[in-house]
Amino acid sequence: MKRSNKIRSFFIGMASAMAMSCVLHAAILTETQYFSGIPDFNSPMEFTYWNADWGVINAIYVEMGLYVFNGALRVDNDAGSGSSSTVEFGAEGQVTSPDVGMFTATFQRPVQEVLATTSGSLNLTADDGDAEVGGTGNYSNQGTDFGEILGAPAFTLGGGNVGAIFFNSFIGVGTYTVVAEVDQYANLGSFGGAQQQIDPLSSTGFVSITFDYTGDGPPTPGLGLVPEPASIALLLSSMAILLSARRRIRQFPRA
């Protein structure tokens, strides 16, 4: 009898868990689009408007994933004294839109200053005269007053909730444009009087928009477009870490 009760409790628990899982799945809908390029660039992407017949929007969460690799930051110290500092090199991204209210409840961007960078310490002597290139004031990648940071693979996520007063701007028919803005980023730390030379890095990533809603949802589950073959190849070759991060189980953030 006790074993029978345990078995019955087990199956009741499994059924309850499955029911809860189905409810959660039905109440969350995510669309993801991908971008890539060499900063600085803007990448417009098309997202699907929320159809009012699908249900009532409870929350909208915008997320950006940014992955950078390659490139280099080179520094030539032209100051009269040596210095040590930590420098950063990479890219920063944010998400905007000309069509929908891409703002939080406090009128900030839901995604801003997503930084994917490589950092390292440089210990440079005072300007050595740059004699190898013709005298002081010229850039030189030689000598003890020169150092460099090579761009290593780096990935970061950033996101936030859209303010409720902007929900109606996401309701409509057809598609709206969302823009991923990615700019090159360099921080020389405490170095002053230094010249820099940058080999551009490469970047790729995604923007996701998630709707938490109450209702039946779209008749056909799933939104989003299938990436073009070139995009698929790029993602498979250089975004393994990004895709791995997206597989994690994440509770939907609440405003």
Strand content: 35-45%
Work out the helicity level: 10-25%
- Measured between the Cα atoms of the first and last residue, the distance is 48 Å
Count of discrete structural domains: 1
Low-confidence stretches: 14-26, 224-236, 245-255
Q: Could you describe the largest sheet, including whether it forms a barrel?
A: 4 strands, antiparallel
Q: Care to count the β-strands? A: 11
In words, what does this structure look like?
This protein is of the alpha+beta class and 255 residues long. The protein has one domain (29-246). The protein is built from three helices and eleven strands; from the N terminus they run αβββββββββββαα. The strands form three sheets. A four-stranded antiparallel beta sheet has the order 1-11-3-8. Strands 2-9-5-6 form a four-stranded antiparallel beta sheet, with no helix packed on it.
What's a concise summary of this model?
By secondary structure, this protein is α+β, with helices and mostly antiparallel strands. It has helices spanning 2-26, 229-238, 240-246, and strands spanning 28-37, 41-48, 56-69, 72-77, 83-96, 114-124, 146-150, 154-161, 175-187, 194-199, 202-214.
